[in-house]
Task: structure prediction
Amino acid sequence: MSTEFTLSAGGYTAVVTARAAALRVLQFHGRDLVVPFPQGGPIPDYRGIIAAPWPNRIADGRYSFDDVEYQLPVNEPERGTALHGLAFPLDWAMKESDAGSVTLTCTVGPTAGYPFALELSARYELDDSGLHASVTAVNTADVAAPYGVCPHPYLVAGSSPLNEWVLDFAADSFLEVTPDRLLPLSLAPVAGHEFDFRAPRAIGSTEIDHAFTGITFDGGLARLSVRDPAGTGVGMSWDESCPWLQIHTADKPAPIPNRFGLAVEPMTCPPDAFNSGTDLIRLEPGATHTASWSIYAL
Result:
């Protein structure tokens, strides 16, 4: 069973697991703000994990970096992709912790498909304003490394069905994808599309598993809110290190539990960035990159 750490402050409680540095529980006065998962055993649906050194998918697990081609394990065989990086199966080590915070670390690489070496550090901290998290990557090797990261929480607005939740986030465009493999095609404007949530409105029956960009940052932060008509809600903010946002309405074929939460994933780069190069981070030897986000009750 994976070690875990329970944090509390300001009416908030969080449980973080050493496996994948995942956010297993986040509550405000006992109300779930994210979809939890059972203690021990596998992490379903990548709930709460840190996806690194890439978020989302790499087509066929193949990419080229500095004119060398690499093959990663294909862990999403039904779509033929390498999904959500290499850090999520790992048990991260505790670096420091107290009643309201924990910092976990792990080493990613070198492997045949990713012959680079990164030290990752994930910090979670609670205060009166919610959960504040960050991931820092340091390139410990003597060659540059391709890099991207995102968190993977499923937000919970309240007890009403997801279709009734009211979603609000400011993004001007979304990435069209292939219907079978969810691989990038081209950017399209949200204006006039069912994916336009620049003004608050109910999600309804809209099915989303897409990346958005053209995000509005106000004072260095982007913000998303999702509210239950019963009056509860949850918000998320993130910094400009993440110009992309994956939204997923957790649609599953019957009889699998369906639309149980809203995946909200601020990403440093879009899907398949190891091939497109779009916003891919080139982490030079000794260089550091940090991405930060917060989740809070509304």
Remarks:
- DSSP finds one helix and 27 strands in the chain.
